[in-house]
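not sure who needs this but someone in the group chat was asking about DNA primase from Pseudoduganella namucuonensis so here u go. i didnt clean anything up, its just raw.
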Amino acid sequence: MIPQSFISDLLNRVDIVDVVGRYVQLKKGGANYMGLCPFHNEKSPSFTVSPTKQFYHCFGCGAHGTSIGFMIEYSGMGFVDAVKDLAQGVGMVVPEQDDKIPPAQRAQMQAQSMALSDAMSHAAEYYKSQLRQAPAAIAYLKGRGLTGEIAARFALGYAPGGWDNLRAVFPDYDAVALVEAGLVIDRVDEEGNRHKRYDRFRERVMFPIRNTKGQVIAFGGRIMEQGEPKYLNSPETPLFSKGHELYGLFEARQAIRDAGYVLVTEGYMDVVALAQMGFPQAVATLGTACTTTHVQKLLRQTDTVIFSFDGDKAGRRAAQRALEACLPQVSDNKTIKFLFLPAEHDPDSYIREFGAAGFERQVAEAMPLSQFLLRVVSAEHDLGEPEGRARVQFEAKPLLQAMAPSALRLQIVRGLATMTQSSPGEIEALYELSKPVAEVRRAPPRSSRQQPVGLELQIVRHLVAHPALALQIDEAGMAAFASFGPEPHERLAQLIGAACALGPQATFAALAQHLKEQGGEYDAIIGEIAAEPESDVDAVRVYLVSAIRQIKMDALKAELAQLFASGLSSTEIGVRYREITAMQDQLLREAEADLSAR
């Protein structure tokens, strides 16, 4: 858990114009900067970046957020990675609560990571330079229909023959970092003594694997002639975990947004060939089954994921593993489909035989996840027999239990019920599904609290826009908010507490980021503030002081009315009456003083 104080400090140090400007071409337009929104297709700019609010907002699609939010949405990073990336750019070190690593050890780990990154970067440049001098490799790529432009886009390279070519790249060929990065291999005897070091990749076309920041973290090497393995991948390293990374995601990010979907394939060459043929929105898993982490990364980029598999048995098995990885991430606003090519084809060969239009038809006809799930569980069982129907229900149980309650799960349950001559309620009861959907007629509201209205809404809006003003609200003001009712009082107390925790330097961006992490209750208000011109903080301060003073006055009047209706003796009433009138007089004097000062 990263401390909120660090998040606030980070957002105060980074400049959102610089952060967004690395990815979006911005032009000054009045107080803000304008550009084409990277989150939806548009021809005229509706995307604004405010240097005063340190916030971005799109008037077209409604996207908005801080520098952290932009890095998450644009680059597909997780929250922690986005914070670390921004912090590195301004020389800050992210503190981690409950972190027991001593400073010296942490510095050593950071130095190791830097050494590995440098090694991979130098190796990538070397392999790329070697491709220019390798006629056989160039001929191979041309034979696969690739142009020099597409090879340059994916930074393809070539590892020449020979056992220690990297010795010419790295003066210290014996450096530990080369082994840790997976670039070289140490041959050791049974006693653990190293006898020889040699390059891992030899005589292979090289595919650099990049993370979401564009840094080379691993390689895939493809042999050009016959031999095994056909593909040789980097091993797991401190930089690279194949269960977390996707080949081509860095290069495909904008194309995915433009197309509205991502196409997941099984191989490097599929990605490069599809990009060559007009489908740059393709990515690939890295010699491993699709994982839940892969799916999470993809769904950060787009609402539609289409998996493409070969039509043979191996492709079907891979598709079923992908299905299982997807189920925990399924939601009603996301679409996941499965595309199966004829058994004799992969995407590369299919698109070359039938063209881009033919492949586009295959994509359009991809099978929805719901249909594929029912097909998987029923494929090998006789639905005409009770035993066969029971077996289908047995096969489907773990898959449905992996899904969160949703309308889509209900649709699958209904399909399964029809298929097995059962009712949806019986299926949900049999599977002991959490929060059965078949019995629920209406989804609960996103928030059980009523939305703020009237004066409360104005106070909330002003405090979100200028959170430092919350420090000026005293206990009497907080108590007076009780007149709005229990829920508004609780909401204002929580909002003021969050704003005060950020301190006197609190900003709209810092509080907005904090509120977003807590849920979407304030998302609409934040969007409205982001879309409006910057309000004058002094005018807002005067308004808040006046509004809270009036709330106090109204609360005192209400208490007086209750006091006289209480039935207490005149002596008992008199004590509290004098206290209330004294407070009223004080509030009037404060109001007159404020008027005189203006």
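also Residues 439-447 have pLDDT under 50 and may be disordered. if thats useful
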